[in-house]
User: Fold this.
Amino acid sequence: MKDGLRFVDCDMHVMEPPDLFDRYLDPAFRSRVVCAVGVDGKPVRGMVVIDDQPTTIDHELQQHRKRTLPPPSLQTTQPLSGSRMADSGQLDFAVERDYDPEAQVMGMALEGIDIAVLYPTAGLSYLARDGMDPRLSLAICQAYNHWIHEFTRYSPERMKWVAMLPLHDVNLACAELVRCVTELGAVGSFVRPNRINGHFWHSNYWNSLFALHEELGVTMGFHEGTGAPYSHMNVLYGENRFYRHVASHWIEMQQALIAMLIAGVFEFYPKLRVGYLEAQNSWVPGILTRIEWDYPQYRDSHAPYLSLTPKEYFQRNCWAAVEGSEPEIEAIAGLIGAHRMCISTDYPHFDSNFPNVSANLLSNARRETAAQILMGGAHLYGFDEQHFVRAARAAEALQPAAAD
Assistant:
């Protein structure tokens, strides 16, 4: 808990081990996935090349912009950040343990997290391009999903996870979702908001995937990254990651929400739960207002199937995450409802405010508002009282080990 308030981290990250594919990838596909190696010839974290193509363009661009020496001071120039710099030492405990499950739980304790839902790091980009062989896409997903399932066995009542899906074939994606939920205990899926092989999120192509999420009672978690080969932001902004990071996280999410709302996804799948994560959320009320502005002119002619307003759909089906330090949190809560907001620590990424995320939220919002946001992830993922009871017991049982 955080200051007596229950806290579900809707989007905490893991650091995949460098030998993930050596250990978990189907041998039939292993020659098609090449990882970075160290001087001993063993895998290290770094660029992953799949079918002779890098998984992110960020390794290829802006070399001349990279800092080669550590900064002269550890004081950040980011006014909204408390610990964004790698040299701050805030992650030493995790680095020493190579980001193992114990380190994950220790990070949760530092933030006061009861339950965390885990998302990938390198895995954000494994599948982020068009034209990938669907069977290879599936094999990569299965390798990651087997690993994250084993990773969370350290404390399954506290560490939950979402399945990576092979979206290059919707039928394979559906089958993998069913397997991960019914056999491995996933609480939802991770998908990127980008267009895939020409299919965007208003397309009927995805209907079976929406239906399965609804029938299984699990969540779709939209999470963008930067540097995806199939992102149009690369065409617009080229090598400058500053442009691309701003645009990809906000604009790609806006386009996905526009597509799903106007297409009637939430009309036809009224129990579908969708999270828009790590994009902050001050964009949400503006997009809802814009759609509602056009609603009277276009609803009857272009979307006669809609029975609710965009805001009503959002407040029934959607949640959008904050990261704690945004100064507009209280204002946005007043516009879309704090109950439609959740919070992401983004641990252990360079632009996270860990371990001050929850403290920042309590500083930037009234306690009543903060309490709803800290619990938002529970509603997004369908956690009930028993989930918290079991999580509390698990935390108590792990205390002696953490102390050692």
Observations:
- DSSP finds 16 helices and twelve strands in the chain.
- Residues 68-83, 400-404 have pLDDT under 50 and may be disordered.
- The domain at 8-30+94-403 is CATH 3.20.20.140 (TIM Barrel).
- The CA atoms of residues 177 and 183 lie 10 Å apart.
